Amino acid sequence: MDYLVRFAQVHESFRKPELQALADLSRLDVEFLDYSQYSPHCIIRLPNEDAARTLISRSILSKNIYELWGSGSTYQALHQDIKRRPSTFWQNYKSSSFKFEIHAYQAKRSLAEQDALIQGFRYLGFEGPIRLKDPQQTFCIFEECEWGVQKPKRVHFGRLIRRSSRGIVDTYTLKKRKYLSTTSMDSELALVTANLTQAAPGKMFYDPFVGTGSFLIASAHFGAFAMGSDIDGRAIRGKNGRNILTNFQQYGLVNKHLDDFVADLTHSPLRRGHRFLDGIICDPPYGVREGLKVLGSKDGGGKEVMYIDGEPAHLQNRYLPPKKPYSFEAMLDDILAFAAGSLVQGGRLSLWMPTANDEDGELGVPRHGCLEVVSVCVQGFNKWSRRLLTYRRLRDEEVKQEQQQPTGQARVETGTTANELNSFRKRYFEGFKETAAVPSPLRKEEADET
């Protein structure tokens, strides 16, 4: 059966990957018959109505899903397409209460025009009462127009099956959140990221750059158990009596919160080689405001223990451990290596990374032999963009012995300053090349590999 998905007109490159991730999570066979990221509609094929309800139930970037009754380039073609169906198809709803809706993309219709369009469907023979509030059935006319052109280039007609979970974006909006910072991920993208990582009841999710816990909250909403860590102990401890746990309490998700701890990814207390995580979800620091750092001293040696009031300084709450500069590219490799050694088979990693919009400054998608790139989504800004990369942990039998390490040669870091260790940071402050183009999700050579 064919269905029409009505999208929200935001984050266009994220919409199809989100639907595909949700279909894979629920083990649904979905076929994309007509999709364009420039269109507000998508036509898909699913086994039945139950599958359609399941698919759309937790989508964030979709609005609704409809049983598709017909499509055409004109209203005449649309009516002909509908009439090709057996009349028994719409007779099932002959006595149901109903209402009509018209959704015109890039155009407006007056009330008189809307009424005329609705009257054109009188041959369907609906005899039930018209109810504008809580009808048993909602039938929708969809028009897709070019900007400034009133005549539609494509029209569809369908029956509403179910609305999505897009309304929860406002529930988790940062405007109402009790504990947040300037780097907190907005609720919409946090929820989308959790969907792409396939958060679900019974799964264990981890954010190694937890901050104020936006990704943990989103994962917990979908039923996953969540824990996080951060190199900055102040983020974990919180301020003014508020911390990550406060956010879980605010949304009634405390039973999904495992714990948070102070650590960086290169010195994680989590047992290496013990694959127990179902999902890793993170937005690593870009190193723009201050250079990236990890625990350790610049010379690599140890330090003499210092005492304050007779107690070792490193055992006190106010202690700030020494840090050393860290390469951005090395951080990406470390994240992938950690994911390869920590994710269960089929587990997912979703991470955000920045890139310049010009060809010279665009960073390639990092690779690891144990991880398969599932999707690359792009959020464009002015002269730079950030990409959401989603990986799947391959089954052991899919991985060759020589693929156990990150692809490419081991990095030899020659720089010492923040700019030398982070090409994106350097280009950010030097000013990117003027360009109006947003980088494609995959470079050509990367697309060929996948």
Jot down its keywords.
elongated; alpha/beta; 14 helices; 25% helix; 7-stranded mixed β-sheet; 450 residues; disordered C terminus
Give an overview of the whole structure.
- The chain is elongated and about 90 Å long.
- 35% of the residues are buried.
- With 450 residues, it is an alpha/beta fold.
- The chain has 14 helices and 18 strands.
- The longest helix has 15 residues, at 328-342.
Q: What is the typical, i.e. mean, pLDDT?
A: 85
Beta content comes to 25-35%
| Rg from alpha-carbon coordinates | 26 Å
Number of strands: 18
Q: Roughly how much helix do the residues carry, as a percent range?
A: 10-25%
In the sheet with the most strands, the strands line up as: 2-3-1-4-7-6-5
Overall geometric form: elongated
Q: Low-confidence runs (pLDDT<50, min 5 residues)? A: 406-410, 435-450
End-to-end Cα distance, whole Å, is 29 Å
Biggest sheet descriptor: 7 strands, mixed
Structural class: alpha/beta
Provide a concise account of the structure shown.
With 450 residues, the protein is an alpha/beta fold. The chain is 25% helix and 26% strand. The longest helix is centred in the C-terminal third of the chain and has 15 residues, at 328-342.
List the helices and strands and how they pair.
Elements: E1 2-7, H1 12-25, E2 31-34, E3 41-45, H2 49-56, E4 62-72, H3 75-83, H4 88-91, E5 98-105, H5 111-119, E6 137-144, E7 154-163, H6 168-171, H7 187-196, E8 204-207, H8 214-221, E9 225-230, H9 233-237, H10 244-250, E10 257-262, E11 277-282, E12 293-295, E13 307-308, E14 311-312, E15 323-325, H11 328-342, E16 343-356, E17 371-380, E18 384-393, H12 418-421, H13 423-430, H14 444-449
Helix pairs in contact: 1-7, 7-8
